[in-house]
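WG repeat-containing protein
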Amino acid sequence: MKNRIVCLMLLMALPFATIAQSENVSYDEIAPFSEGLAAVRIGNQWGFINENTRLVIDFRDDLVWNQNADTNKSGVLGIRYPQFKNGRCMIQKLKVNDIPFYGFIDTSGEIVIQPEYLNITEFDHKNAIGIYVREAFQGQNEINISVIDYIFTEVVVNTNGEIIWPIHEREHILTAKRRYETPELHSRLIGDDLLIYKTEDNKWETKKLDISI
């Protein structure tokens, strides 16, 4: 009788095991693993799988990638596919005049750095460099429309989203949709606390940062 029960249980389990083994997901693209996670693409959406091939971050359309990315460029224009660096992966959101602003999610898929940057690097050196946008309310015009100025500052930001070093203000950045181009970064981190930046005469200088936060 015991043998019959065991056989019956095995027969009942067999179809489910067969189904589970046959549920292979096909992806359009699989990126290399970084920090234990790999981005996988279906259409224009990406998710993340772990090293057991389990989907741990569901598919979404706000992750930053560019099939024709120039990986020699610093910032968003050089990102070929989504990946985590220091526990952060870049996202984008259309905001002012449908211009993309950039922020970051953590490995649970939660937004931890709000999309407030016109361009930003990944967290290659524990910190990142980005062009932060701050709104300055100037009042209302004669037809009661709010007048807002945008102030752009190139900054060093940490993985908590805290601006820990303002590098310099940026000018001549247009936010009109038809004329907009992603502004290039004028600075680069070449170590956890070593910064190089471009001067007004197109020379490069170095700066040791006190960023022990």
